[in-house]
Amino acid sequence: MGALSHLRVLDLSRVLAGPWAGQILADLGAEVIKVERPGNGDDTRAWGPPFLKDAYGENTSEAAYYLSANRNKQSVTIDFTRPEGQQLVRELAAKSDILIENFKVGGLAAYGLDYESLKAINPKLIYCSITGFGQTGPYAKRAGYDFMIQGLGGLMSLTGRPEGDEGAGPVKVGVALTDILTGLYSTVAILAALAHRDQGGGGQHIDMALLDVQVACLANQAMNYLTTGVAPKRLGNAHPNIVPYQDFPTADGDFILTVGNDGQFRKFAQVAGQPQWADDPRFATNKLRVANRAVLIPLIRQATVFKTTAEWVAQLEQAGVPCGPINDLAQMFADPQVQARRLAIELPHALAGMVPQVASPIRLSETPVEYRSAPPLLGEHTLEVLQRVLGLDAGVVAGFKASGVL
């Protein structure tokens, strides 16, 4: 039994941040009921290509994007723009511990599905709202998408080649990182609210905003600005506070060197055949190396091109200097460490036979992550959930379906 197997989650969210939080809770054992629009469902079901292929190599209706964030859930289709659908969602919320939604601020109030309305029927409900900008402030009514938040929230000002370099300019991160981080923070907030409830408290409303999360995750770069008043600039793959800590060319490609302290720099200098660098008054400490970055980095680049990536990685690992290759995803999934940790898994799927998945990184010794089911087909569990959770008989469910409520 999973650590959260005693909990039921009503997941009204779609796209990524909310579904990511729901999938984490599901992986940890919670029963997660995903409520979707009849006919269309979660927007990401159509966000392809690529789509999952069946046994004959033909595309199914399941986009890879959707498959990334909806494992271990049950899909129920309910049209809650209609009174009958609203009542079904209220009844499910009354029997749930957690509700996740990412509608615009006030969007669910018109259907009687906002926090205050559901709190009245389930005071212990933990209600997590995920929006672009939060429930308050001048932007609260705006829609928010990851790419836009990466720009507005400062991340893109730090990502990309430095000014003056060829191809300079702001660049977004290659995955929807703000959505993912918001899903993670939302999960932490939900678990904190559960701990409060378990100590005798009631439920509560959680107000999560993509912009808040993006600003919080600027970490040392935000503090670099707040302590100096100077906005950090794009450095490409270089680090603002550590040198050398970036990519370098090799005889057959590139590798990443991440020197975290002066002892590691001394070891690197030995392997590079330049032991004098460690005692050079320009490079002896990290503070000096940061100040003299423009001198040191070209010297390192001149040295690294004489060995292959594999040679650098092998020799530096033996010396205790952190480094690594720059893998594409095929190389990454073929890496022996990734395979040893079983980060690629497969689950049985109704249309494709098996569906690939990326494993959860959470490893618990006593209550391990459970992989119970593949991301569900649209409405796959409508009848089963409404019968089991709400006690409706098949005839009533069939009537709702015939009228378009389900």
From TrEMBL:
Gene3D superfamilies: Crotonobetainyl-coa:carnitine coa-transferase, domain 1 (3.40.50.10540), formyl-coa transferase, domain 3 (3.30.1540.10). GO terms for molecular function: CoA-transferase activity. Keywords: Transferase. Transmembrane segments: none annotated. SUPFAM superfamilies: CoA-transferase family III (CaiB/BaiF) (SSF89796). InterPro entries: CoA-transferase_III_domain, CoA-Trfase_fam_III, CoA-Trfase_III_dom3_sf, CoA-Trfase_III_dom_1_sf. It comes from the Bacteria. This is CoA transferase.
